[in-house]
Amino acid sequence: MVQTKGEVFLMRECAEQRTLEKYQAKINLLLALSRFFDQGGEQLPKTLEPLNKAAAVLVQSEGPKELESAVKILEEYLNSSPEVYQALTYEFNRLFVGPAAPKAPPYESVYRSAEGLVMQEQTLAVRKMYLREGLHSQEQGHEPDDFIGTELEFMAYLLSRALSSQQEQNLSAAQYYLELHREFCSKHMEQWVEAFAQAIGRSTDYPLFTALSKILVAGTQSSFCK
Amino acid sequence: MTKQLGFLHNSEKCVGCQGCEMACKNEYQTDAAPRWRQVFQLREEDYSLPTRMFFSMACNHCANPECLRVCPVKAYTKREDGIVVHDHDRCIGCRLCLMACPYDRPQFNPAQKKVEKCNLCYQRIDKGEKPACVAACIPEALQLVEINEALDQRMGVLKTLPGLPSPDITQPAIRFIGPKQGKQIRRD
Amino acid sequence: MKLSRRQFIGGTAAAAAGAALFNFNLLTKSVTAADDSLEEMKTFRNVCPRNCYDTCGQISYVQNGILKKVEGDPKHGYTNGKLCLKGYTYTRRVYSPDRVKYPMKQTPRGSGNWTRISWDEAMDTIAKKILELKSRYGSTLPICFNKYSGNFGIVHYGAEGTMSSIGYTTRALGTPCWPAGIDAQTYDFGTLYSNDPEDMVNAKYLILWGQNAAWTAIHTLPFINKARERGAKLVVIDPVLTSTASKADLYIQINSSTDGALALGMARYILDNNWVDWDYARNNSVGFDEWVDYLKTNITLDWASEKTGVPQDIIREIAREYATTKPASMWVGYGMQRHINGGQNVRIIDALGVMTGNVGKSGGGVNYGHLETWGFSYNAMVNPAPKGSKGFIGPDGKEGDRNINMNNFAHDVMAQNDPPVKMLWLACRNPGSQDPDTNAIEKMFAAMEFVVTVDSFFNKTVQMSDIVLPATTHFEDWDVMASYWHYWIGINQRAIDPLYESKSDVEIAMLLSEKMNALEPGSCTFPTSGTPEEWAAKEFNPGIHSLLGISDYRELIEGPRKAKMTPASWADGKFRTPSKKIEIHSDLAEKNGLPALPVWVEDMKAPEKYPIRLFTPHPQHGLHSQFQNLDWMMTANPEPKVEIHPVLAAKYGISEGDKVKIYNDLGSIIVKAHLTRTTSPEVIVSYEAWYKDSNFNVNYTLKATPSDMGKQATGNNGVAFHDNFVTIEKA
């Protein structure tokens, strides 16, 4: 991986500036988001709490300010009644799953072509990036590789590799993973997450999902070395 | 330019099935909105009897392409065989070509904010294959032809159809065979 | 049973960081070395399984496991490497984000409140309901099954097999589209059996009777055009000037439902001029002279002209040409038999073909369709009922399924008492949008305890279901398909993995069987093993092998094969009627309460209150409720229309583009007007379809009026779809 001196410097500085906890907080948020989408509306009672916690930690560790109110909304939902959770499940499926045409299909390629199909060139490009790390989606061929949950897990993985490399004092490896993370963000996640969040925002009346869309956008920015 | 490739559309044979239109979309997996090729219905009132009559039109690869003339970034080029090729990478989506084309054939893709159009399947032609639309036409109403004097002298070959702009503007590389109407026993 | 990763929730939720400790949930380490290069494009053989004459051979192009495009199979001699517009949109169907992806449950039905459930839970819920109903009523008859033509692949008869394997059930029997014509040809010839459509090139004269090939069988056009290049004249008879009719040498705008009267008029003129092929007719048929007497006594050209609206000189012209230009081919469309006298009209046309000796001849025939190439094993369909199953005792004293009328489905389901119907299982079928009288269908669904639908898209029927199971597309399945028009058979390979958690009907049956037997051993006889390819292989038998000249189904992977049959049906003169001859006089028809002879039966007259006939024929951009919802189709044909003759429109103060309310006692629809003289002045036309994000459905006004025939060969009479009367007003 060829990098400019400036980039190397920036990353070193970043690495020095940020505590390991901040990395960890970010990783945890990505994973919590990944689980939130993957486990589906039926598991919200289990996935909402870790998500709220991860987001709260990131906010505390100088995370993006716009997260604060969103985190509060999440928190308000934590002790929802079973009826409210049930309604949230239906809303989750209406937004992301079906069986009616979902209002915000959670797949990258849907947002990067005009009418939005799954299994397009973006899907394949994501698959290629996973492969560069010797990884592939467990459901390759069945579920689109660019499912939001899978992309989030990949981002978490890259950051966790960067973090562990850092801990092992392997700076070049840390740089490599940070750079790969940045590349994945800019080529993929950042290319669609806004549109996805907007689709959520204009399709739901539930503050939970609007808050979620904000956390998702803020939590997936690659530029957290500012 | 050594020759001018173009289309010959036969409304006598065309049943308006839109197979050409979908075959084009299938070949290039285009987005829904841009219609590189489109089937149009001729107006009943322009002919003596009411029938379902159609013609199919993509880019006409004009001898004097207005799109090419007005494009500020030179996204359009004309090949030796007359095909007008649009370079998607160069296109800045200014849409001057849309205004210039008398046939509305450059298609704006609202998602990509760029123009796209039929490139007469030049990659297929270079391999010796027919354009996807021509290959898909079941009643063989659509043909790839060389536009020349001999073609224009063939009986029944028309340079335009009712309702289309004058071919003098851009000299489009399309020729038509008009619809033929049979005998009708009607009750109205 | 393999646990899905969704069942691991607690275990991996608290994933720790660090490479060694990273717990993958969705990703996994690749075993093979990383290879991110683009694979070579692979191709597979497929066959379009839709309910369509053409049943096209397809080649799917697949790269990295993704379907890139679909083309026609050049080795298919009838479809010749070309697809219709629908066939070219398949990538949009497979990869539409709108697909039904997982098993889901709706609580309560119709609420839009859907929960995603595992296949295991879905099967558990369904199996328990089946067993509970069985124990409550002592049989599985409260379960009603309705499957028809959403996918005509032979392995899909595993859906019927699912039902057989749980016991005797209530079955929607019949076919909505074409049974009156089938029965007509059954009474006349013993079955429906048309010439090879490729043989139409040999015709010297062609009559397309109520048939719009340009929209519904476009691959026949090249053969018709070839015949025309060789000098054949094309005549199209249709109340609507269709795209096909627009190409005819002669188009005849006949009064709806009077086709038999025109044929009788022609027959009388042929008789008067002695253009009859007496040898053929007398040697091959029974009752011909009796019919000739009828013609002499009852039929005049005056009458025929009056009935049909066709001038006498034209009747004379086509009678003379048809009788004297040999061979002459007739193609009877399905539209013209969707009337209360539709089957009888087909019988009269059959008789016209016999009278002129055009039956059994290359370039001739009265062509309607055939099932000669459908002799598969139906292995997936045939399962014995579990031991001790209680069934319905039919009029013949035999115990079995309880058959109800598919063509009056809502009514018949509600009419069952002993035991009542409590559960519906729907596969390859969308009655919510396709059945007559949508309001009655909605009420009937609401009265059910439990509804299961297998489908790929969220249509009206899924909307009214408790559980939806995601169906595979044909690119995700192995199957084999035959046509009811051409003579080719093709294998359908699995080209891509099934998307999401979709499964085929047979895979669903296997899962259900596993679950039912776990809950109550012996309660389901459906096998629980077999790969999709093995299931397809089992549909082949020595008869199919010899028909195709193959010894193994895998030979079809090299290309589809055409059945080894003569180009002309009935060329051997061996008819399959009780008398082994063409039965111009049919005792069987008479026994079934129909006229023995092909005589005129009155058409339905418009009631005073609803003077306009509403035609709802097959659309150009879809097949029933399939295709029109796809984005490319929505661009090509964004909204429904009703075609109205300008004279009629003026009478009701309607202009081009106006919204028009079409209604009768049953219901109403609102649709945009298109003024055109391609329709008759008393007929309006709106094509049946299911548009995306739209509740448009022509069947809200359509009464389940039976056509005159269908019972003999298909179990129930058809629907007189085209005897539907309405009135209109500006909306």
TrEMBL record, chain A:
InterPro entries per UniProt: DMSO/NO3_reduct_chaperone, TorD-like_sf, TorD/DmsD_chaperones
Keywords from the UniProt entry: Chaperone
The keyword Cell cycle is annotated on this UniProt entry: no
Claim: S-adenosyl-L-methionine is one of the keywords in the record: no
Stored SUPFAM superfamilies: TorD-like
Pfam families in the record: Nitrate_red_del (PF02613)
Classification via PANTHER family: CHAPERONE PROTEIN YCDY (PTHR34227), DIMETHYL SULFOXIDE REDUCTASE CHAPERONE-RELATED (PTHR34227:SF1)
Protein's name in the database: Chaperone TorD involved in molybdoenzyme TorA maturation
Record organism: Desulfosporosinus hippei DSM 8344
High-level lineage: Bacteria, Bacillati, Bacillota, Clostridia, Eubacteriales
TrEMBL record, chain B:
Transmembrane segments: none
GO molecular-function terms, A-Z: 4 iron, 4 sulfur cluster binding; metal ion binding
Residue span, 4Fe-4S ferredoxin-type domain: 5-35, 50-81, 82-111
Alphabetical UniProt keywords: 4Fe-4S, Iron, Iron-sulfur, Metal-binding
InterPro entries: 4Fe4S_Fe-S-bd, 4Fe4S_Fe_S_CS, ET_IronSulfur_Cluster-Binding
Claim: Transferase is one of the keywords in the record: no
PANTHER family on file: PROTEIN NRFC (PTHR43177:SF9)
Record-given protein name: DMSO reductase, iron-sulfur subunit
Species this chain originates from: Desulfosporosinus hippei DSM 8344
Automatic annotation (TrEMBL), chain C:
InterPro entries: Asp_de-COase-like_dom_sf (IPR009010), MoPterin_dinucl-bd_dom (IPR006657), Mopterin_OxRdtase (IPR006656), Mopterin_OxRdtase_4Fe-4S_dom (IPR006963), Mopterin_OxRdtase_prok_CS (IPR006655), Prok_Mopterin_Oxidored (IPR050612), TAT_signal (IPR006311), TAT_signal_bac_arc (IPR019546)
Keyword field contains Magnesium: no
GO MF terms, alphabetically ordered: iron-sulfur cluster binding; metal ion binding; molybdopterin cofactor binding; oxidoreductase activity
Signal peptide residue numbers: 1-33
Domain of life per record: Bacteria
Family: Belongs to the prokaryotic molybdopterin-containing oxidoreductase family.
The protein's name: Tat (Twin-arginine translocation) pathway signal sequence
Species annotation: Desulfosporosinus hippei DSM 8344
